[in-house]
Specification:
15 strands; 16% strand; 27% helix; heme binding; three-stranded antiparallel beta sheet; 13 helices; alpha+beta; cytochrome-c peroxidase activity; globular
């Protein structure tokens, strides 16, 4: 009841005064730069040089040889892409390849086998590690290529409308180090947007756990579960809140993990290249210093992520949008896509503290049913569980990134397809949407496009 009251309060906001999606970190930009704008005024002036360095590192293309640019050396020995923006174009969302002939430009494949590593995480595939890296530096072979096969089926809505749903199935070719493990587990992942993450890190663990208790008390069949993951800096278990399965405890480790897994760049948190035993050339590669990404450079990249602003909502006064917001609540969507959170104390960047934000996420894992399952556990996350992705900024995806592909593997070609893939704890909300009239569905989609 508290959640529905909060939603009703939002829906009844005064005309012309939409909720500030990112609190003080909200920006009224509905153009192609909507995901890239920084809150310079919220960052102490003494840190502006570091913030500019972080922006430059996120935008940079990394190289192989120190003789070219010693500050950007370290790419490889195996890697997926040479820059952050290769996978997060304009700080936005990646997409699957459009055809089997295209490589994965902003998508990757996680690999593991049944079991857990020493810290409770996924157990790496013996020959290829935790992620397939297609490319290698000169003298080091890439691991192979992944491509997609698509399976589709039809769904029928209550008014007789039919919607085609599709899902990708990975296949592999040109594998350089022998066959994959017979019990291989895979998970396709497109890169998510990176704005607003500092605000999400600033939400207190106590508040997240309180939401989980409230969900259980409401008895709607929704039971968010926090992931518990290994925090490398602390050397202990911590709440997971970033990544498609909430498998990273904070932004600093999330960034360092991506640098290591996607670009092959080491840091104090990931000090060694990922070179499984059969990859002799990878293991012999010693042209780069380690760690390649210094602590101050990682701090600068983290600060850049903290300072990114959230695009403001649009069209909030339209009657159709306001009706869609009410339908979003009554359908049960807001049980997981929680419209309002509050940030707590955050000494890393005090301006992020004490903000009322509207990410439309509870930052927890939920069982999404067999249709969305990847079958690959990640710490406490089962093969059917995913973290609730924030919805803020989703209405600008086509403007910023030129596509509307959604969900963890980009299978959904729009908002309605994404909703119809929801199962498990979200099955009730999905069926409520399925039962809507065409006018009601369009109102719901209009609301989502306003975010």
């Amino acid at each position: 009841m508290l959640l529905l009251a909060a939603i009703a309060q939002l829906a009844g906001a005064a005309p012309g005064v939409p909720p500030r999606a990112g609190g003080a970190f909200t920006l009224a930009d509905d153009g192609r730069s909507a995901y890239t704008r920084l809150a310079w005024e919220r960052v102490p002036e003494a840190l502006h040089e570091r913030l500019a360095e972080g922006r430059a590192l996120v935008r940079a293309t990394w190289v192989v040889s120190p003789s070219l640019d010693s500050d950007l050396a370290g790419l490889g020995p195996t890697y997926n892409r040479p820059s952050c923006l290769s996978c997060h174009p304009r700080n936005g969302r990646g997409e699957p390849p459009a055809s089997v002939a295209e490589p994965m430009r902003s998508m990757l494949v996680r690999l593991s086998i049944p079991g857990q590593d020493a810290h409770g995480g996924p157990l790496a595939e013996p020959n290829y590690g935790e992620q397939l890296n297609e490319h290698g530096v000169p003298g080091v072979p890439g691991e192979g290529e992944a491509w997609l096969q698509w399976r589709s089926h039809q769904e029928t809505l209550a008014d007789g409308s039919r919607v085609e749903l599709r899902r990708p199935v990975p296949a592999f070719r040109e594998l350089a180090f022998g066959p994959l493990h017979p019990r291989l587990l895979t998970s396709l992942r497109v890169a998510p947007p990176i704005f607003g993450l500092g605000l999400l890190e600033a939400v207190s663990e106590a508040d997240i756990l309180a939401i989980a208790r409230q969900q259980r008390a409401e008895g709607r069949g929704v039971a968010g579960m926090p992931n518990r993951v290994w925090d490398r800096a602390r050397g202990g278990v911590a709440l997971g809140r970033f990544g498609w399965k909430a498998n990273q405890p904070g932004l600093r480790q999330q960034i360092a993990s991506a640098m290591a897994g996607d670009l092959g760049i080491t840091s104090a948190l990931f000090p060694e290249p990922d070179c499984p035993p059969p990859q002799a050339a990878c293991r012999a590669w010693d042209a780069d210093r380690h760690p390649e990404l210094s602590g101050p450079a990682l701090d600068a990249m983290t600060l850049y992520h903290y300072a990114l602003q959230v695009p403001a909502r649009r069209d909030v006064d339209e009657p159709r949008v306001r009706r869609g917001e009410r339908l979003f609540a009554t359908a049960g969507c807001a049980s997981c896509h929680r419209p309002m959170l509050r940030t707590g104390a955050f000494p890393e960047l005090p301006a992020l503290a004490g903000q009322t934000i509207h990410p439309y996420s509870d930052l927890m894992l939920h069982d999404m049913g067999e249709g969305l399952a990847d079958g690959r556990p990640d710490y406490l996350a089962s093969g059917r569980q995913w973290r609730t992705p924030p919805l803020w900024g989703i209405g600008l995806l086509a403007t910023v990134n030129g596509h509307g592909l959604l969900l963890h593997d980009g299978r959904a070609r729009g908002l309605l397809e994404a909703i119809l893939w929801h199962g498990g704890e979200a099955a009730g909300a999905r069926e409520a949407v399925r039962a809507m009239s065409a006018v009601e569905r369009e109102a719901l989609l209009a609301f989502l496009r306003s975010l």
